[in-house]
Structure formats: C-alpha cells, structure tokens
Amino acid sequence: MVFMILTYHHLSKPVELLKNLIPSLKPGATVVIVDPDPEKDKGLPASESTLSHAGSDGTMAWVDPANDLFGLVFTQSPGGRNPAQAFQKLITESCVGK
Fold first, then answer.
1. pTM: predicted TM-score of the whole model, two decimal places
2. Domain count, the chain
C-alpha cells in the first residue's frame, strides 16, 4: 500500500511518478492519494511558493518564502478540532494582510 498525503499537487510530473510506481507494486496493491481539490478548496491565504507538512493529529509546519513567514503548530487533537489551519490563516492575514 502507498499513501500520498498532501503531496500529489507538489509533484511536477505526477503521471510519470505513478507510471513508474505501478510496476513496483504487488498485484492488487492500493495507492491512496489524499490531496485538496483546487476547485473546491481555495486553501489558505499563502503564496504559491508555500511549502507545508502536517501530522495526523494537528501538528503542522509551513514556510512561505514569498511573504517571509514560517509557522510551527505543535498540538495533539486526535478526532478533535484541529487549530493548525486557523492558526496559519490568522498569522498570514495579520502579517501580510490577505
């Protein structure tokens, strides 16, 4: 099984990656891609160059070089309300005014 979480949209050649990945999988293997839908999720107020990583229970780190911002959220909120995106939005809007 392969999990790609909030990664696919960062790939410059996603189709080529999948074509190269499939031959290495066992028959019947599962590939799970979890990524935002750009048509439904306009995301947070950040630049196109923003890079981020989030953990399963709310921990998150991001770097926005275009706006000279970075943030770290260390939290454990399994099954609860995750404050990471609200925190990023608040910081970015406060510092950049978006």
1. 0.43
2. 2
